[in-house]
Write a structure and sequence with these properties.
- This protein is mainly alpha-helical.
- The protein folds into 2 domains: 162 residues; 118 residues, no CATH class.
- It is built from 13 helices and 4 strands.
- A two-stranded antiparallel sheet has the order 1-2.
- Helix 8 packs across helix 13 and helix 9 runs antiparallel to helix 13.
- The longest helix is centred in the C-terminal third of the chain and has 32 residues.
- The N terminus is likely disordered.
Length: 299
């Protein structure tokens, strides 16, 4: 009789099998989403249009607008500013291309030059908010001038999450994998409270699948796993209970906040809980597999 788990794995796409598809947007380094690119272009277009004038020979930039274009493109291209073409329509096309189609590093160079320009800096709050709204893998530090972009995570963190998904899926824990995929979708949709809840659900799911008698909530489930010998380190068990308690208290994720519609958490908290829960879920799966192998060898 064919192994249904093997058949299920065979039907997974490459991205699903190895975890690339569920990777949250903030961990997809060297990637800028189309949505963010469009939002940045819309903002920059409005900036340029403020300085567009109309004459007998068509549109042209005011002196302020022309100098803005010269500074931006001069720094980006490494050219003398007096050699920069400032034709109005051509400039709009160039800014649009850089916003929508340039490589991620050139895109970030372009935006960083703009936010550090006297004219461009007037839109820094709007541009910064766009990077937050679309959960970009890079964040703009505006604590002091000049402003700089920094990555939200590392390649190593992204690889660890991908490996965790692979372990979970190969362990047949599709329920946990589904919760983590949903947590990813919530992060990308800026639904951070919902993301944390689904991250916790992933651990609860794998706990119940390992031990069907485990409670549907995490703290008793961890106790159950400890009782059957899967969790041998009380300190680790208690540490995760404490972390879980943050999401389950009267001001946490699972309880409505007084006079608030959403839990008071942001991207950083959601990303931390996602990574912690994915790693802990993979840890439980590996421990369970080793216990099963050990029992099989003993038999």
């Amino acid at each position: 009789m064919p192994d249904t788990q093997d058949n299920a794995l065979e039907n997974l796409s490459f991205s699903q099998r190895y975890g690339y598809k569920p990777l949250p947007e903030p961990m997809r380094l060297e990637h800028i989403s189309d949505e963010l690119r469009r939002e940045i272009w819309n903002t920059l277009r409005q900036v340029l249009l403020q300085y567009r004038c109309s004459g007998y020979e068509g549109y042209y930039f005011s002196e302020t607008g022309r100098r803005f274009v010269e500074r931006i493109m001069g720094k980006l291209l490494g050219m003398p500013e007096d050699e920069i073409e400032t034709d109005c329509e051509q400039t709009l096309d160039d800014f649009k291309r850089l916003s929508l189609n340039s490589p991620f590093n050139e895109f970030l160079d372009f935006v960083q030059i703009i936010v550090n320009d006297p004219i461009g800096s007037q839109s820094v709050n709007t541009l910064q908010k766009s990077f937050e709204t679309y959960a970009a893998p890079y964040w703009l530090d505006t604590a002091k001038h000049p402003f700089h972009f920094f990555p939200r995570s590392t390649q190593e963190e992204g690889k660890a999450i991908q490996e965790a998904f692979q372990i979970i899926q190969h362990g047949g824990m599709e329920g946990a994998a589904t919760h983590l995929r949903q947590a990813t979708e919530h992060i990308n949709a800026q639904q951070y409270g919902d993301s944390i809840a689904d991250s916790i659900h992933a651990v609860e799911s794998v706990a119940r699948q390992i031990d069907p008698k485990a409670s549907q909530t995490l703290s008793p489930a961890l106790n159950s796993l400890a009782e059957i010998g899967l969790l041998k380190h009380p300190a680790l068990t208690e540490a995760f209970k404490q972390l879980y308690g943050y999401t389950n208290d009267e001001q946490g994720i699972r309880h409505a906040l007084l006079d608030k519609n959403v839990a008071a958490v942001g991207l950083d908290e959601a990303m931390f809980m996602f990574g912690a829960c994915a790693s802990f879920t993979a840890y439980l799966v590996k421990k369970h597999q080793r216990e099963k192998n050990r029992d099989g060898d003993a038999a």
